[in-house]
Input
Amino acid sequence: MSQKLLARTILIGFITAVMSTGCHHGNGAGPNASTSGNESAVPGIGPGGEAGISERPAVGLGGLPGVGQFAAVLFDYDSARIRPSEESKLEAVAAYLKANPGKLVVEGHCDERGTAEYNRALGERRAIAARDELVKLGADTSRMSTISYGKDRPADPGHDESAWAKDRRCEFVIVNQ
Amino acid sequence: MEQVWRQFSHMAIRTAQAISVGLLLCGGAFRANAQVDVVKGKHSFGVSGFTGDAAIAGQVTDVLKNDLRLSGYFSLAPVSSAEYVQSGSVRGDHNGIVVECIVVQQATKNVALSKAYQGSAQDLRRVVHKLSDDIVQTLSGQRGIAQTKIAFVWLHNGAKELAVMDYDGYNVHQLTYDRSISVRPRWSPDGRKIVYTSYKNVFPDVLEVDLYTGQRRRLAAYPGLNTGAVFSPDGLTIALTLSKDGNPELYTMNVQGGDLRRLTHTRAGESSPTWSPDGQAIAYVSDESGVPQIWQIGKDGGTGSRLTVSPSYNTEPDWSRPPANSDMKPMLAVTSRVGGKFQLGVYEKGSGVVTPVAADGADNEDPSWAPDGRHLVFTKTQRWRPQLYLLDVVTGDQVELPAVEGGASEPAWGP
Output
């Protein structure tokens, strides 16, 4: 067997091994559940059953779309403050939630002029700020969760002020239970 | 995928790659005063090459020269005038290849090094990296980096996957195949595991992958953000960022994901923890002052204290861990933003000020220290394309690593 073919065969074997450990469908495992070998239980649900602010909706592996069903709430540079001009967009989301079932995921995003990990925290603060506004507008906290993507999923792939203004946003995605 | 594979090496990182810090040897006139103020001079080194099979000898010579150049301790010079001169031979045997090497100090005719190395033919680069590290250790008394690895984020087909490569950019191999976002890798001190942030289950979770077995497990999957996981120097604790209690704060947990403890309690956001070399403190980013700056807190939590004041945006700290006998002192490398551009800086304790070490008009971010406490790997973005570069903070030399197709970012230098 040539070196390259041998190497490829080992590679494919390794890839198969790695991929077979990765799949995890639907909800997280309950407290202290254990799986054989591969992925272990979700320790995020602590011994007191603390689920934090909200439990996670059951979402399939396909992931959530980056663009939500509502107009994105936009932010100033380096800021997680909800601008008064954005309030009407949040009112629309809150109104939908009152009238319809389902859970809401609030995504937080940043533009590329911040560094990667700090932007994950900034994106999360934006998502939390939007979620807190929705609570003030009457939405139920237990129906909402946040996902920060930092700068990893820009709305506009451009590299100028107009693109960046669109990237600094929260998206709102309804997921069915 | 083919273009990513320059040379394939076995997937599992071998136990034979145990890091040897080496003995402190006399000889080598490198002395440091403080911080980056190490003697910047380089010894001239002449590589005469290797006798034996021409193809093998050529490859061995190329790897050796690149290693010596990247080490920062040597400038390659003609054999006739160099301070140190190398000679050697290569041969194949039934086990693989044998590389013999002699290094002589030309002025005194003293033999500084005379060693033989054996390995399989496809491990040729690894064999030469061991030789290079021995040359660096012997002649400078400092630990070499030629046998180290760098983990990074590979921008591939619209996804972000983790990959690992040799420190010189060769032998790239992919770790995740999730077609999702896998980011912020950090190594365990024994080099066996990498913790990272993964969106493969939709939400950002902290996962750990075992590089020997390929096994993965989830360490933190709380509501909200789970990210920034980083091992303590003794390998027993992981610091990380969680937002489950209202906004991003710092926590620690044990390496099983249990014994979760909260360190910070502020209305600001905390992120990007890095451990002090003695494992007693954690530096991190907080925007409590209104802009992101570097702060420090004890490993058991409490009140953080601010370290950096200037420039007005400092993030992504990484705390170096030079070996005990090193000329380098522990330092914090950070990413500053000045005039809209990212630049690398090092923080000098007590000054509040970050000194630039890579400010050149490109966007330079996400520094990660090599275990020698002298080299950094970082992301340089030019024309909006991110690639990995090495920086020698003593000389200021930057070296571009072989380009990764699609782009590379968020590097983490292994132990």
